[in-house]
Amino acid sequence: MKRLENKVAVITGGNSGIGFATASEFINEGANVIITGRNPQSIGAATAALGEKAYGIVSDTSKFADIQHLQEEVKAHAEKIDILFINAGIAKFSSVDQVSEEFYEESFDINFKGAYFTIQALLPLINDGGSIILNTSINAHVGMPGASIYAASKAALLSLAKNLSAELLSRKIRVNAISPGPVVTPLHSTAKFGITDEQLKQMGEGILSQIPVGRFGTPEEIAKAAAFFASDDSSFILGTELIVDGGMATL
Ligand SMILES: NC(=O)c1ccc[n+]([C@@H]2O[C@H](COP(=O)([O-])OP(=O)(O)OC[C@H]3O[C@@H](n4cnc5c(N)ncnc54)[C@H](OP(=O)(O)O)[C@@H]3O)[C@@H](O)[C@H]2O)c1
Asked: Torsion angle, CA of 45/182/7/1, rounded to 10 degrees?
């Protein structure tokens, strides 16, 4: 029997990069998967590529009304779920003197507020014994110029894994975090990072030199870690974090 047979998973930001690879991995492990994202075209393309076990919902995680709508749509489609992968996120970089209130709010509204209220909205639909997985970042552990806001928004998720695990003990819902190091996805672009071509080039070279295994990770390598936390293979593991970073933070 496959590890996620008869399970239903919601993956926020499942139309691209790590979220898409995780949707594919969960389906390979037997799950039905609901993915979210802001763009109807990319949600449509992703669900078509994932096949009949995938269902897409357009929902902007930074908008409270969209999160309530997501709850209604998930309930109508699946009634109950077993796995929630909080993956939707942005990574914008700026030096501290350039950070505006809007910059701060965009990052925190998506990376933390959206994560928090998505969990709150979907909790009543999660079966007892379910698994919540938070996608954080190695930036929660290492210091990097320009990353103060992004890093803080991800570090906040690490405390959620502990506190919600404690709060949800009676329902046997485990909350764990994955902290990826640099991974090759569409995130690594000037538009998504909010930096210039030259800055992107310098950042890429600088980061590569800090990864002991000498390469970026793949989305599939993060998806394998998510499948571990989603399955009963990790049944005695809660409130903790798996760093998946080619040794960047630990060697
Ligand atoms: N790649 C890395 O090196 C790396 C390292 C550490 C952590 N991470 C984390 O991994 C997660 C996935 O990133 P990725 O690398 O796979 O990047 P990606 O390919 O850009 O994927 C990001 C996903 O998040 C979704 N998203 C962004 N804002 C959203 C919003 N407001 N509402 C709903 N969905 C939203 C995007 O969908 P739409 O844009 O269509 O809405 C997309 O599906 C992020 O949380 C990121 O911080 C990535």
From this structure: 110
Apex 152 CA angle, 151 and 155, nearest 5: 85
- Please identify, in words, the CATH class of the domain defined by 8-187+219-244: alpha beta
Q: What share of the chain is helix, strand, coil (3-state, %, to 5)?
A: 50, 20, 35
> Over the Cα atoms of the chain, what is R_g?
17
**Cα–ligand 1 centroid distance for 1 (angstroms):** 31
C-alpha to C-alpha distance for 29 and 42, rounded to whole angstroms:
23
Taking the chain (251 residues) in runs of 10, the rounded mean pLDDT of each run is: 97 98 98 98 98 98 98 98 98 98 98 98 98 98 96 98 98 98 96 94 92 98 98 98 96 93
Domain boundaries, given as residue ranges, for the chain:
8-187+219-244
Going from the Cα of 109 to the center of ligand 1, the distance in angstroms, rounded, reads 13
* Residue pair 138/154 in contact by the 8 Å Cβ criterion: no
pLDDT of residue 1: 87
The residue contributing the CA closest to ligand 1 atom 44 is: 89
Catalytic: 150?
yes
User: How far away, in angstroms, is 31 Cα from ligand 1 center?
Assistant: 21
Residue among 101, 73, 86, 69 at smallest CA distance from 11:
86
